[in-house]
Write a structure and sequence with these properties.
The complex is a heterodimer of chains A (about 325) and B (about 250). Chain A is an all-alpha fold. Chain A has 15 helices and no strands. In chain A, helix 13 runs parallel beside helix 15. The termini of chain A are far apart. By secondary structure, chain B is mainly α. In chain B, helix 2 packs antiparallel against helix 3, helix 5 packs antiparallel against helix 6 and helix 5 runs parallel beside helix 9. The radius of gyration of chain B is 19 Å and the shape is globular. The chains are: A mainly alpha (about 325), B mainly alpha (about 250). At the A-B interface, helix 1, helix 2 and helix 3 of A face helix 2, helix 3, helix 4, helix 5 and helix 6 of B.
């Protein structure tokens, strides 16, 4: 090939690359314009969890590899924090695992300030003005704020299941779970908030994500995650899935015998959805496993009388009820 | 080392096979290949950035429960995105070599483009799939996805060579269109299978159907690999050298 051909290729090659990139940009703009993402789905969780789950979003994982060292570096080089500099645990994966005593004390101080602001009726942001955060990184600071606010409102909501606390709990839990720093605990709280808000799909997605990322597949909160997933099944009318979860729940939920842990949740949902027989079934089954047969049978019978009970659920319920009645007859 | 070996072994074998066949009496210009590899190293990051943006900022996702959304995602992210960045890397490498006045023998451009594709596949394996795919999955990727990428690079190389000779932009457009088509077809093979079963009224079979990956993706990857090797074997090195000399004299 001669020099003329080579020169022509330079122009044509550049033209092709520029037009190709422009085409890609147009395609991206068109998708964003005509196929918008749901506003509450900040991390693509709905699409991500509904599918096979693993995903090929490897750029995200690649970026995360550098997040912990970056945050650690910022903590170490922030001149304002030389006095109370924290330390991240080596090799633990997330930046939230701060074990340094000063850091923990600071967190408690922030929570105390938040509670005080809440009690005094001041906006929660004022608590942050009164507390010096050791983090120079704005996204990290925002995430920490959202996480702690979500924890406070979750606590408030659990006290009396008042709807006044549900809205801020939902907002902050969703924001924390949507952050790039979110971990399994944030997904757990977001799942719980969405479950109480009645958004079953989103709740299920967050809970699945929490379950998948949970480091030790057992414990109180992990068991609660499994139980809440069973609740989403019960609310969604998925009998077989709920039944499978109940069978495995004892192996992952060491506190299943202490029914007072989850009793208030069940009572709340029974009151809120009086025509969902599967909730009564689930509640009854948990009580039966905890040897409270009388209450369990009462709940089973209540569920049995509901016209909304499907045929497959009726069959399962009949078995459970028969077993209990047989035991009692003996 | 294990990571490198798991991700790159088939890339190295393919590269060695191509070089051994074509360069019996000479060796490929390492400088020229280094330029291609250098640009090949950049391409996967650009493609990954685009895919991540697409899956974060739009409802499109490769794991979407909606089969059409999944297919559209593969078309845009893997087809339009990845192939554009790979082809752009090949074109940029060729442009740099032209500016550096390097000797561009016909075979070396094609081999360079295959190198871009192999580096792309290797990086994709090591950063994208090693953490989420088990060893058997990595092995399957190595003899399904890597040859597919290599054959896409081969198409890019042939068309860049044609574009250089004919002074036309159309071979580049053809290369892009063809590779987008094949790459998308490869990625959506499982979705097409599900659609076919659904249209045949065999929905019940779908959950039980556990076809091996090679049965699903092989019909696209293996013929392309065979075609690539056949094309590469067809012209001997002597002929290429003669062709090159003829061009230089002409």
């Amino acid at each position: 090939m001669n020099a003329k051909q080579k020169d022509a290729f330079l122009i044509r090659g550049a033209f092709f690359i520029v037009s190709g990139l422009a085409m890609l940009l147009i395609v991206a703009c068109l998708i964003q314009r005509y196929y918008p993402k749901p506003l509450d789905d900040t991390r693509g969780i709905t699409e991500y969890v509904d599918g096979a789950g693993s995903g090929s979003n490897w750029w995200e994982r690649f970026k995360k590899k550098f997040q912990v060292p970056r945050i650690k570096r910022r903590l170490q080089h922030d001149p304002s924090q030389k006095a109370n500099r924290g330390k991240l645990v080596e090799g633990t994966g997330t930046a939230t695992t701060v074990t340094d005593r000063q850091q923990m004390l600071l967190r408690q101080r922030i929570i105390a300030e938040l509670q005080l602001a809440d009690y005094e009726g001041r906006p929660l942001e004022s608590a942050w003005d009164r507390t010096q955060m050791p983090y120079g990184n704005y996204p990290w600071k925002t995430y920490e704020a959202d996480r702690m606010k979500a924890a406070i409102f979750a606590q408030r909501h659990e006290e009396n299941y008042n709807h006044r606390w549900l809205k801020p709990f939902l907002d902050y839990a969703n924001r924390a779970a949507g952050s790039e720093f979110a971990n399994f605990e944030d997904f757990f709280w977001a799942g719980r908030a969405n479950l109480f808000a009645g958004d079953l799909r989103q709740a299920r997605n967050y809970l699945h994500l929490a379950k998948r990322q949970w480091p030790v597949k057992s414990g109180l909160l992990y068991g609660m995650t499994e139980l809440m997933l069973a609740l989403t099944d019960a609310l969604g009318g998925k009998t077989s899935s709920m039944e499978k979860r109940i069978e495995t729940i004892r192996s992952v939920f060491p506190d299943w015998l202490y029914t007072e842990i989850y009793q208030p949740d069940f009572e709340y949902f029974e009151q809120k959805y009086p025509n969902k027989p599967l909730i009564f079934m689930l509640h009854g089954r948990m009580l039966a496993m905890g040897f409270n047969d009388a209450k369990a049978m009462e709940l089973y019978r209540k569920a049995f009388q509901m016209p909304e009970l499907g045929n497959d659920a009726k069959k399962v319920l009949r078995d459970w009820l028969d077993t209990l009645e047989e035991v009692h007859d003996k | 080392m294990t990571i490198l070996l798991l991700s790159f072994w088939s890339c190295i074998i393919l590269f060695a096979a191509l070089v051994n066949r074509k360069f019996k009496w000479t060796r490929p210009n390492t400088g020229v290949l280094s330029v291609f590899i250098g640009f090949g190293l950049m391409a996967p990051f650009a493609a990954a950035y685009f895919s991540t943006w697409l899956m974060r900022e739009t409802p499109l996702h490769v794991d979407s429960p909606n089969i059409w959304t999944r297919m559209l995602t593969f078309f845009i992210a893997a087809g339009l995105g990845e192939e554009l960045f790979k082809l752009s890397a090949c074109i940029l490498a060729t442009m740099v070599l032209i500016l550096l006045r390097a000797q561009l023998r016909p075979g070396i451009v094609v081999l360079g483009c295959v190198c871009v594709a192999l580096v792309f596949a290797g990086i994709e394996n090591s950063l994208g799939y090693l953490q989420i795919v088990d060893d058997l999955g990595m092995l399957k990727r190595s003899y399904l996805a890597v040859p597919l990428h290599a054959s896409m690079g081969f198409i890019h190389g042939l068309c860049i060579d044609r574009s250089l000779r004919k002074s036309s932009v159309f071979p580049l457009v053809f290369a892009y269109a063809a590779t987008v088509f094949f790459h998308t077809l490869y990625d959506i093979m499982d979705s097409l299978l599900v659609l076919a079963l659904q249209s045949a009224g065999m929905e019940d079979v779908i959950p039980q159907l556990e076809l091996p990956a090679e049965a699903v993706y092989g019909p696209i990857a293996f013929p392309l690999l065979i075609w690539m090797m056949w094309r590469w074997h067809k012209v001997s090195e002597i002929e290429l050298m003669a062709q090159n000399q003829g061009d230089a004299l002409g």
